Give the backbone structure.
Amino acid sequence: MDFELIDTQPAFEALMDAVEGAPLVALDTEAASFHRYHDRVYLVQLTIPGRTVVIDPLGLTDLGRLGVLLADPGSEKIFHDADYDLRLFQKEYGFEPRRLFDTRIAAQFTAEPGIGLAALLEKYFDVRPDKRFQRADWSARPLTDGMLEYAAGDTHLLCELRSILRDRLTEMGRLGWAEEEFGLVESTRWEPGEVDPRVTFMKLKGARKLDRRALAILRELYAWREATASALDRATFRVLGNEVLFHLATHPAKSRDDLSRVRGIGPDTVNRRGDELLEAIARGLATPEDELPKFVRGARHAHDPEFESRVSALKLRRNALAEEFALQPGVLCPNAILEGIARLMPTAVEGMTAVTGMRDWQREVFGEALLETLDGTR
């Protein structure tokens, strides 16, 4: 596989001159969330028919023309599972791609048994990506030749794969379905969500099993780990694993010697961070009783047998339709949409436009079938 590394601004500008106006542009990014706390774009892979390049944004001063290319409605941008790539582009650079083709969505709608890129490349091109680099540290420099070749492979055949899947979508009468989904993907934005570590610690698996004092210690340790990982720009589990946090929460260490006997805490951590860990534990132990964290029960939804009966009937009909279309039920119509229909109880297909998340193609293809099922439950 032939590819070029673009790691200087002049080479990047020349590349943008060459790809300007290209009808098909395949793209991918490499981040480093397995290694870094603050995720960002560390590589951009780009392919136009006959040419594949790997762009190193760390060697560039201005990536702005890539954003112009991404926003150009005259070229189709091909991604495989675009969601995270688009979030990173928008978060870091403000780029908002237009006119997308997502080969993962296309594979779903063509009933491919494997929708991952590796499975599709193996099926259609007999190419098997080297799994050694699946968790490579893309923030490291210099990158090895093997890593660069692996990265280039993510887009090298995407234009051809897009053509295969587009032809199949057309043959199956589902191109419009996919194109509606592609249009919705364009609105993907970075949403950080809840970032307060003194709240998010309660989402750790196993936290509900702890008593309130252990929860207080866990809260302090978790907040310490988040702050330390952020300062070091290191993935949190590379600072201290969850199992260590839980062990210290339930068996609070009182000295560096205690810490050194805990599996998962190395000598370097004890020497460099031991006092910080002990201080975090002490803060948890000193938390007043009336300030100890606790889980609040969510509001219970009133039992509604008629609503549940409608949802069950709609699921049965959806499942039958999914089998007919040879699609996964959740791809054809997620449960949340069925629940919205059951709650709204429309009397006509047009009324389904008020159901959150329901697509036009879903209403057109099987809206009448779902409405008929709903009518049978009234």
Summary: The first helix runs from residue 9 to 19.
